[in-house]
Design a protein that fits this description.
The chain has about 425 residues and is of the alpha+beta class. The chain contains 17 helices and 14 strands. About 45% of the residues lie in helices and about 10% in strands.
């Protein structure tokens, strides 16, 4: 068996550079080359631990279903370089993680912590939210009607709609939503000068890690007050569940409770915002799909899944092998680090016909945007319900739709999507 096959440096840059995801083409070109020429290759970059880039749909599934073999928590769960990793370990006393959410956990802890909130997000248990979500959706459609036939859909609608939903589920007051949005953008947009805290060009530097730690500290300070309140005065919200949780008959630690809040408060809306904006982007880019949707609103669930596939808001997670493993004729050694390239898996030509095209009637649509295996996204059903309801409210009233300027994607190689989406439209 072959132990590795090095990837050309320029291709590796297309995978790891946050800017490659912002131009809408460079990362996809790198992944297309890898799928065709080196679908399981080794990336070797100065200042970075070597890592495998997993680009094929089937291989991502194979790794994701073996959570005892490919761990999330042993090493950094998102890509970083050696200097930044060393800085994080220095700040945390040896851990490669600034937070400890479900994303950074493995068994036996992962299933225990997932179980704390899992029932909240089951389809049968989120149905009671539908009326409230529909009211929020209508508020946003009505807002579009007041904007004179043009808006930045990403900023004016797609960002605020899922934010309002998840904050109500969590129990965060509406007055604090702008703060939660700003902190989320600073966390996920750390490489984007328009979104990060410093306003500067940021790579994976020790200074950037310190900046991220400051953002997380702000989250922690905010949610510590929420925790103290919910312990004293429990309510029917997710914050109460987290604040009063017990693991192995002991109260959940403050650090892990705060981490839990952070993952719900950030991933709970940002990824849905990206896919929501991506749907409108796709419909503007493919007006035939918009016409198809207007003629047949039963295609709305297809629009939801296709926009999630097309955007793939979570660009990667890292895994580390616990023992040697043979995959695609190569030997992944114990301790090796792997980059799971979800945008690549979601455009794998062996799985998706014309994967670069936006097709709302794509069937089947076996996208990987929610992950797979034990780490399958906890909030996937809520996210899809939010999007479905918004389109049920908007599409019947939307008579015309087109770009009104150049859309822009966030500079991000971990979590990102449209940050600007100027459109012209006509509502009935």
């Amino acid at each position: 068996m072959s132990t590795s096959s090095p990837i050309p440096e320029e291709v590796v840059r297309g995978v790891i550079d946050p800017a490659a995801y912002a131009d809408g083409a460079s990362a996809h070109e790198a992944f297309r080359w890898l799928r065709a020429n080196n679908p399981l290759g080794k990336a070797e970059v100065e200042g970075v631990d070597p890592f495998w880039v997993v680009t094929k749909h089937a291989d991502i599934l194979e790794i994701s279903r073996q959570n005892d073999l490919f761990l999330s928590g042993a090493r950094a769960t998102t890509f970083t370089n050696q200097a930044a990793d060393a800085r994080v370990r220095e700040m945390t006393g040896g851990s490669p993680h600034l937070v400890r959410t479900l994303v950074q956990m493995d068994a036996p802890d992962h299933p225990k912590y997932r179980l704390l909130t899992q029932s909240w997000f089951l389809p049968q248990n989120i149905r009671h939210l539908e009326d409230r979500i529909r009211a929020i959706a209508r508020e946003h459609v009505d807002r579009m009607a007041t904007l004179g036939g043009s808006c930045d859909f990403a900023r004016d609608i797609a960002i605020t709609y899922p934010l309002r939903v998840i904050m109500e589920v969590l129990g965060v007051p509406s007055d604090d939503e702008p703060r939660m949005l700003r902190l989320t953008q600073e966390l996920f947009g750390a490489a984007d000068p328009e979104l990060n805290r410093s306003g500067g060009e940021r790579g994976d530097t020790p200074d950037a890690m310190a900046e991220l730690q400051a953002v997380i500290a702000d989250f922690f300070m905010y949610f510590k007050k929420i925790t103290d309140d919910r312990k004293a005065d429990p309510r029917r919200d997710l914050a109460t569940v987290i604040a009063n949780s017990r693991i192995d008959d002991a109260p959940i630690s403050d650090f892990e409770a705060m981490s839990y809040y952070v993952i719900v408060a950030t991933a709970g809306h940002d990824t849905t915002s990206s896919s929501t904006a991506g749907a409108i982007w796709g419909l503007c880019e493919a007006p035939g799909e918009f016409a198809k949707l207007k003629a047949d609103p039963s295609l709305i669930p297809g629009l939801v899944d296709e926009s999630i596939r097309w955007v793939t808001p979570v660009k990667h997670f890292m895994r580390s092998a616990t023992r040697d493993y043979e995959l695609r004729g190569r030997t992944i050694a114990a301790g090796d680090w792997l980059w799971l390239a979800y945008p690549s898996g979601n455009r794998d030509e062996e799985v998706f016909d014309a994967p670069g095209e936006f097709r709302i009637d794509r069937n089947p649509n076996r996208h990987l945007a929610f992950g797979y295996g034990a780490h399958l996204c906890l909030g996937q059903h809520l996210a899809k319900m939010e999007m479905r309801i918004l389109w049920e409210e908007l599409i019947p009233r939307l008579e015309a739709l087109e770009f009104d300027g150049e859309p822009q994607l966030a500079v991000a190689n971990f979590v990102g999507g449209p940050k600007r989406l100027p459109i012209r439209y006509r509502l009935s």
